[in-house]
Amino acid sequence: MGTMITKEFIRKIPKTDLHLHLDGSLRLSTLIELAKDQGVSLPSYTEAGLCETIFKEKYANLIEYLEGFRFTTAVMSTPEAIERVTFELVEDIIAEGVRYAEIRFAPQLHICDNMPIEKVVHAVSRGIEHAKSAFNKTLRNGNDIPFECGIIVCAMRSFNKYMGSYYANLLRNLSNIPKKDVYALASLELARSVVHFTKEDGLPIVGFDIAGQEAGYPAVNHKTAYQYLHNHFILKTVHAGESYGPESIFQAITECHANRIGHGTHLFAKDKIADPEIEEPAVYVNALAEYIANQRIPLEVCLTSNMQTIPEIEKVSNHPIGKMIEHNLAVSICTDNRLVSHTSVSRELELLVSNFNVGKRELKNIVLAGFKGAFYPGSYNEKRNYVRQVINRYKMVEQEESTLKD
């Protein structure tokens, strides 16, 4: 890390995490405890054993990376368990200086006989609210800004009968139609639930996402769900460009009206363009990057996660975030999965400043881009006021750092 930006400074500044999967961010100790209580079989019941067998430092590909989620989702089988892991996640991120987060999860993964979708979503909301009540008074008393949080509901690009009873029943009942149409129906049903929860129940759902294996399961399959959300003014993000090329990002923006892009790692990978009608890949990639820059479409960048799942990114300095910054794209630094990737926002920012030409000014711009690109659970004016608080807090930390050096 450069001498100008210290770990302590990164820890103190207000930060965001806009790409944070609940079921990828459990505490290992909680996973083990819940598994024992619920009779869920794990490969090991020690933290070291789980890190050796499931939650590794490096994975062969995205599919292997996602393997651990079958254990984390298995223990999130009751409202109490879901509320607990949500509360603990908020507690952990507040402790490292995150002041705004968007917790995303796929509620359909957790639906079962005694837990309909309403109970799943309300459990996450309760976990967030209880954590805010527990910690925000202390933050205010310490002249810090309050923690704010929104929920992003995820649909799955594809699924199988082993991913939960909801999916198993859907596949069985609709076995006479193509699977891609079944996937589309599931995402549309979830989209309708999101509109209901926001309008009728007043839950802090701030956006919609689609996750899962990208290659072979294009986002356009879920166009109907995204159009429905678009018609109801729900903000949208899409996992795109993580394990597929620039065309996936273009599709997310044009077909699904994405307000943000999850990952966007292969934005500049002209060699991954598969459409034969794109005769000049380099021109296409440059035009796409310029469009994203001009429209200020934020990219949710997850450095460690990408290194774990994309073999060609052998080290941090190979990550395309350097190009993203050079093109003045709106990037925010995220964790993706705190458990699966063994990381935190502070660690991700440390990797950024240690491996790229990022000084204090660039770091401030990147951090503030996270707050400005947030799907804030309030009015636009409320968001502007909150961002102003963030800027003032950031300046205060800068001044404290300067005074210590003097």
Question: Short summary of the structure?
Answer:
The chain contains 17 helices and 8 strands.
Report on this model:
The chain is an alpha/beta fold and 406 residues long. It has one domain: Metal-dependent hydrolases (TIM Barrel, Alpha-Beta Barrel). It has 17 helices and eight strands. Strand 2, helix 7 (117-141) and strand 3 (148-156) form a beta-alpha-beta unit. Helix 2 (28-38) packs across helix 5 (69-75) and helix 16 (360-372) packs antiparallel against helix 17 (380-405). The longest helix is centred in the last third of the chain and has 26 residues, at 380-405. It is globular and about 70 Å long. The chain starts with 6 loop residues before the first helix and ends with a helix. The mean pLDDT is 95.
Tell the overall outline. globular
Question: Could you say how many structural domains there are in total?
Answer: 1
Sheet with most strands = 4 strands, parallel
**Rg:** 20 Å
CATH superfamily assignment? Metal-dependent hydrolases
Question: How much strand content do the residues show?
Answer: 5-15%
| Helix/strand structural class | alpha/beta
Widest sheet, order of strands: 1-2-3-4
Determine the fraction of residues in helical runs and give it as a percent range: 40-55%
Unreliable spans: none
**CA(first)-CA(last) distance:** 21 Å
**Tally of DSSP helical segments:** 17
At CATH level 2, the architecture is Alpha-Beta Barrel
